[in-house]
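Thread title: Can someone regenerate the structure for this chain?

I was given the following input by a collaborator and told the matching C-alpha cells would be attached. They weren't. Posting the sequence so someone can regenerate them.
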Amino acid sequence: MVDDGHSGLAAPMLLIATLGPLWLYNLIAWVVNLAPAKALLDEPGRYVTAPEGGLRYSTLSVALRIADAPDERWVVVWLGAGARAQLRTDPRLWLVGPGRRGLALAASPGSAVLRVARVHNRPPHRARPVAALAHGPSAPCDDAVLQAHVRSRRRTTAIFSVSWLLVRAWLTQSHLPVLLRTADLDRHAWVLAAALALAGLAGISAGAHLTDFVRVGRAGRALTWTPLPATIDGDIAPNGHLSAYAEGRVRLPDGTERLVTFASVSPDLVADVASAGRLWILGALRPGGRAMAGIPARPLAESVTLGRRTG
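Best answer:
Regenerated them for you:
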C-alpha cells in the first residue's frame, strides 16, 4: 500500500476502512432514529397492550397488536433479544403517535429509550406467534429476560472483538514489513505511524470488548441480587444516542457510603436509580472498584465504578 506511489492516499484509506463502519452506523442511527423522532416528541403517549395471541416475532422486528384499537392495528418495532423476552413477560409498549405514514415511537415498560416504530394494518410477512413467558422473582442466573440479554450481548461483544483483532492483524501484516525494510522511511513515516496508531486502537477496542464479554458472562451466572440504596447527584448527561453518564452515591451493606460513576451505561439504569433510589448489583459485591448492575426482569447488565468513601 505504501510502495506504489500512492502513499498520500494510504492513511485516509486506512481511516475509512477501520472507522468507516462506525461512522456509517452513527449516520444511519441519526437518519432512522433521531431525526424522525423530533417531529413526534410533542405528541401524547400511552401504553398499548397486546391481547392473547397478539404478539409476533419476525427475523428483525416484533409486532404487537393493539388490544383496544377499533380496527386491526399492529405496532412493528425492532427490539433486541432481551427486550423481546421482556415483552413476552409484559406484553405492552409505551407508544407515541402514530404520525404521518404510521411513524411512531415506542418503548418497553420502564425504558427511557424511545425507538422508531411503525403502525400497520397487519403484522410483517412470516411473523410467527410467540407464547407469553411466565416470570416471577428469581436469581440473575434464572432470570429469563436477563439471560436473553446476556446471551445477545456476549454474542455481539465476541463479534466486535474478533473484528477488531482481524483489523489489527491486517494492519500489522500489511505495514509492519514495510516499516522494517523501507529505505525511504521519511516519505512513508506518517502513513506507517497512522497504521500503527490504528493497530493500537484496534487492539484496545478488541481488549475492551473481550473484557466486557467476560464480565457480562460472570454477572449472568450470579446466584443473587444485591440491592443498594443509591442517589444520583447532578444531571444525567447524554453520552451518545443510547448511553448516558452520571455520578452519584451508594450505601454499601457495611454502612459506608461511596461515590458511584455511571459511564456510557444505558439511560434505563440511571433513570431507574434516580426514580427508585436503588442500585441492583448482579451477585455479591467483589473487592475492587468495578461492579455489574442491572434491574430484575429487565434487559440490563452495565458496568459501574465504585469510588472513594464520601465521609
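Confidence is low (pLDDT under 50) at residues 1-11.
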